[in-house]
Amino acid sequence: MFFDASVAERQLQRTWFKEPCLKIGDVRSGSSLPQCVKLERSELLALHLDGDVVIGGFFPLHYVASDPQYSYKTKPETTSCSGFDLRAFRWMMTMVFAVEEINRNSSLLPGVKLGYQIMDSCDHVHTSLKVLFSLENTTEEIKTRESSTCLYYSPVPAVIGFASSSPTRAVAQTLGPFNIPLVSYFATCTCLTDKQLYPSFLRTVPSDLFQVRGLVQLVTFFGWFWVGTIGTTDDYSLYGIQAFSDLFGQQGGCVEFHLTISKSSTVAEIQKIADKLQSSTARVVVVFATEGQLVDLFSELARRNVTGIQWIASEAWVTASRLASPNFHSLLEGTLGFSFPGVSIPGLKEFLLNVRPSPKPGMEFVNMFWEEQFGCVVEKPLCTGLEDLRYVYSSYSDVTKVRISYNVYKAVYAIAHALHTFLNCDSVGPSRGLCEKHSSFSNGQFLQHLKIVNFTNQFHENVYFDSNGEPVPLYDIINWQKDSTDEIRFIKVGSYDGSAPQRQQLHIVKDMTVWTKGQSRVPLSQCSAPCPPGSRQATRQGEPKCCFDCLPCADGEISNQTGSTECIKCPEYFWSDKEKVKCVAGVEEFLSFYDKMGIILVAITLLGFILTTIITIVFHRFRYTPIVKANNAEISFLLLLSLKLCFLCSLVFIGQPSWWTCRLRQAAFGISFVLCLSCLLVKTIVVLLAFRANVPGSRGQMLFGTSQQRILILCTTAPQICLCTGWVLGAPPFPFRNPNYQASTGKIVVECKEPWPPGFYLLLGYIGLLAFACLLLAFLGRKLPDRFNEAKFITFSMLIFWAVWISFIPAYVSSPGNFSVAVEIFAILASSYGLLLCIFVPKCYIILLHPEKNIKKGMTRKCCR
To answer: I need a surface site. Which of 286, 514, 731, 733 has the fewest CB within 10 A?
Structure first.
């Protein structure tokens, strides 16, 4: 077309109705307004039917189109198309069938005859735009009005097309500014949802956004998280693959590879793609492409006898009968994919089978179909025109469940219903129930009526467009299965409703063998095998997250599912079992009376108590002997009593801690040892005073009599009693199940928790103070006469006492669990035995084995020498 720069941009102007309504938009012949001038008559083929209203239709009757070559020196050659598509021809004839059906329907558009202008888009952007512009008026000059712009009045009220997204985008963007509706039956790209770019675009097919969501749910349902993708360079494939990869990744999936089939792939490129498919570890491949774009690749794979790939098909080829030929059975059997719901349109099969070729102009498309179907040439005697389509099975005649054809059918009826409302066909007036077809209107007015169309068709489906110009997203899940005749059939095995709640969208039949080519298990596609229970995934550096190593769960953690990415930490007081698959209640551990260590400590404790008791009996039996009287018998018996308490208090540390044992154990230990050390302190003072009593003028022994000794013991013991009482009442220790030791043992240590740790160290500190005083005084009396040697034994006992308790502190702090209790018991017993053996055993030795030394003279011999 030629456009004068000085005129408004207007072309393809025409009224919607033919004569006598053609006068709408005419201007006086003498008008000086500029005109659109057609340079040359179009030679493009078209299937045409005159009518009051003519609907445009575009179908990819050929699926291969050569790219145009422009030299800008000569007239461009007509684009050549090849590869006749029988299925696309059925779509076209479905539009013809729907128009004729509406024309026979007296209740829909009464008095208005629908016509059509159908052309071949060749599934190519350039060809699609070319056939769009050929819809203009066939007259050489079209008169214009000053208020009009080009395409404001279009040759047709609406256009039905296209099958692919790229041509659809180009045409929709062209028609959008002129408000000419474009209703697509197969363009599913999500990009077409943008109403800023495509304001007049509508479709009877759901957006790929819903298909992608469904495909991701389908793939993840079978545990396929390692897949490959194949696409082409068109918008449908690019947007679909990108959306699938993004959403699939969000669900934890990985795409190992993406292979692209170019428009004009060479043999070398096809072989390279085939090589990648054969070497890949991904056994599930998602394909967004049309059947014509896949023929060469599938032919190469079939030639190589490639099997074991689970193909996931987009709706563009999932019901492509051409790919279901025997050549591809071994390759494509078991294919899964999404398709639009299929119906059986009454009368369509008979209509399609009655198509006949003709040499008349306008029948070129039918003749092409006939030649492709029967392998003959219409112009020569090879084709008689009497060949019977009933005896030929092809994708053209297979109308048991039509899907894309049904989308075409709905598009035609949607336009008819919008026209019916817009032309006031139901009004009561002079028209008497006929449409007001003489009214003048613009495309923008009709577009608004088409957007709000809402009707229920004969299949009880509510047909309408949402705010984005799209229908309800409903899909069938199709599986390619062989029937009894060894032919591939497209079997519905599930459904997907994109408008349903999230967890109710995907529905799959229970028979799992449907998906697996008759096998009893679902095919596997994985970079790494799922980690078994008891382990977790550890991603390999630099590789996709689906490629990982399996590491066992740490102690105290479990994973009870296959393929766990993280191990779950067991609750407090629970522990992982040996297999790390479940948490079991932790075994409570404490120093029991029945443990080996507990039995040994109890035996040592009882031995010390018995030995102390025996010594007490011996001292009581010989209480009037000089050695007992010289060592202050009353303090000795009190010391023996305190040693018994020291031995017995260790028993409180053994056994399961309870409310009363936790309060009693440290208090009993602290008071018993302070009483013991108080007695030793008094005995040491008595020894020193007794030695100084032999010095003339000394009155020490008279000032430190029995009463003073008792008072000193009471005064030195009272602070410890007060400290223990305040500790027990103010911040008493309590039983505590300590889970901190689970990390290494899996056992719960039951211990006494001390909410006020300084209390224990104050208790030990006071004991240490008394022990230091005893050691100091005993050390001062180390040079007393040999026969008066108790100070020397007290010194030895205090040295043992200090050695034990100095080593106790680091051992106690560093010992885990019940070992700390054992360390404290050992310290109690060791220091008690040290006091008992160093102080009383030498005296018992003299009393029992050398009674001749147990005389007053023997005790004071060296002192008085």
So the answer is: 731
